[in-house]
Specification:
It is a single chain. The protein is mostly beta strands. Helix content is about 0%, strand content about 35%. The protein has strands at about 1-5, 15-20, 30-35, 45-50, 50-55, 60, 65, 70-75, 90, 110, 115-120, 130-135, 160-165, 170-174. The strands form 5 sheets. The protein has a 4-stranded antiparallel β-sheet, with no helix packed on it. A 3-stranded antiparallel β-sheet has the order 1-2-3, with no helix packed on it. Strand 13 (about 160-165) and strand 14 form a beta hairpin. The two termini are about 20 Å apart.
């Protein structure tokens, strides 16, 4: 389990990332610090796709953001012990077309079938209804974000919902 960003005072976005695992009895282990986010964020979405954890949108110190951050795991080093392969090495951003098409905070984000999705949220002024998706390539880069108007939410948009992937369906709760 990862706890990514957030706030400590209800206002100021954080860069911190914490990780816990579940032991054989079903209890959470001690939370352990991981490398910080590249940019602070609260109300961001995150998805685990392939060998990367993606953190997208949210609110930075300057307001709603379209920044996409990629966390790299320790999986490509054969010398890495299995129990450390889920440790993050670093977070970063790419300059080549990976940011969301528009700022989104408090959106529903998820990963499914090798793709990353973000739907709804706010641009800082009003709820939005667009659904964007991207398919990372084999090197962990996002060449582009796509959208189809037929996949968007109703005109009123939606913020703060929790996504549930259920087979080929996505359910937005709240």
């Amino acid at each position: 389990l990862f706890l990514i960003g957030g706030t400590s005072d209800g206002k100021t976005p954080l860069k911190s990332v914490l990780k816990s695992t579940v032991d054989t009895k079903g209890n959470l282990t001690k939370w352990v610090g991981q490398p910080d986010l590249y940019q602070e964020a609260t109300d961001a979405s995150a998805a685990l796709v392939g060998s990367y954890i993606w953190v997208f949108g949210g609110t930075s110190a300057s307001g709603p953001t379209n920044v996409v951050q990629r966390g790299e795991f320790n999986v490509n080093d054969p010398a890495t012990p299995a129990d450390e392969s889920t440790s993050l090495l670093r977070f970063g951003v790419s300059s080549g077309g990976t940011n969301l098409p528009a700022p989104r905070t408090d959106a529903a984000g998820f990963g499914a079938s090798g793709a990353i999705y973000v739907v709804g949220g706010s641009d800082g002024t009003s709820p939005r209804g667009e659904l964007y998706w991207a398919v990372p390539d084999s090197l962990g880069n996002i060449p582009e974000w796509k959208t189809l108007p037929q996949s968007d939410l109703p005109a009123s948009g939606l913020t703060g919902s929790a996504p549930v992937v259920l087979g080929p369906n996505i359910i937005l709760v709240g």
